[in-house]
Amino acid sequence: TWTIGNVITDQVEAIRAQVGDARAVCGLSGGVDSSVAAALVQRAIGDRLTCVLVDHGLLREGEVEQVEQDFVAATGVDLVVVDAADRFLAALAGVSDPETKRKVIGREFIRVFEEAAARVVADSAEQGEPVEFLVQGTLYPDVVESGGGSGTATIKSHHNVGGLPDDLEFGLVEPLRTLFKDEVRRVGLELGVPEEIVWRQPFPGPGLGIRIVGEVTADRLEILRRADAIAREELTAAGLDREVWQCPVVLLADVRSVGVQGDGRTYGHPVVLRPVSSEDAMTADWTRLPYDVLATISTRITNEVREVNRVVLDVTSKPPGTIEWE
Ligand code: XMP
């Protein structure tokens, strides 16, 4: 019979059979899929799995800590966090075009991950236990969409890691390949993955980098991170997390408007709230959030984030608008 318990037992056996005595490495994003995949593989092979979290400095408030502390405490995974915020900021300097931002962030992400993975491989080779596998949180809908093939991945070892071939071939471990999202969540809960991660709303890979309209700078990220944290806190407090598919908070960094805050006139930035309801992100409608929740978010952001003097609400469906602003 099909139960979540049986899915876990079967997958744990399959992972052990595939990996044998070798080691595996897994990139964690803080999202549901990579977290549950990592938790399953760690259940199967324990410390022979090493997870790598690339902190690109574009995550929301508390997200790295959530993985570093709560996820590790709950699952026992061996985690390496790479703080690459400065490197991403440097690469993003002067970039305002959305697609260029995506390209730059994607390119740096792969480089940083590959360097970190190569270090894990080098360490393990020294100890005589090679890393031969890469864990990925591929779900059933991804398998169908991409035509079904599973196989290998190549990681470039770069030149800062001595004694490794230039390219390393990995076998892919994809323990979620037969599962839909709701099943992945149930597996995650059963494995003790924290609820905040299991029920996390979708968040784009390029992170806050595509929620600053204009150039991405450290100061702007800090402003957006604080505004976003307030919006998320109030939506959670109002019990709206499951009703809202996601709620991007967008900083219009190149726009300024006049306001009056505290003792005087200000010339600050607007943030946009973009709450949407959706089934699959292909189409979406703007969520009719209760006025009092909107009011609380607006008051708190303009009180607590000095640089922001207006909060505006995006009331566009998708299409014609996309969910993100970039
Ligand atoms: P749009 O803005 O196209 O977004 O309506 C649809 C869904 O995709 C997410 N999104 C991204 N996810 N990399 C990602 O991993 C991206 O570059 C990206 N752009 C948009 C968005 O958050 C929404 O869930």
UniProtKB/TrEMBL annotation:
The gene is guaA. Pathway: Purine metabolism; GMP biosynthesis; GMP from XMP (L-Gln route): step 1/1. Residues 2-200 form the GMPS ATP-PPase domain. Signal peptide: none annotated. Its EC number is 6.3.5.2. ATP binds at residues 29-35. It is an enzyme of class 6 (ligase). One of its GO terms (molecular function) is GMP synthase (glutamine-hydrolyzing) activity. It comes from the Bacteria. This is GMP synthase [glutamine-hydrolyzing]. Coiled coil: none annotated. Keywords: ATP-binding, Glutamine amidotransferase, GMP biosynthesis, Ligase, Nucleotide-binding, Purine biosynthesis. Catalyzes the synthesis of GMP from XMP. The chain holds residues 191 to 516 of 516 of the full protein. Homodimer. It catalyses: XMP + L-glutamine + ATP + H2O = GMP + L-glutamate + AMP + diphosphate + 2 H(+).
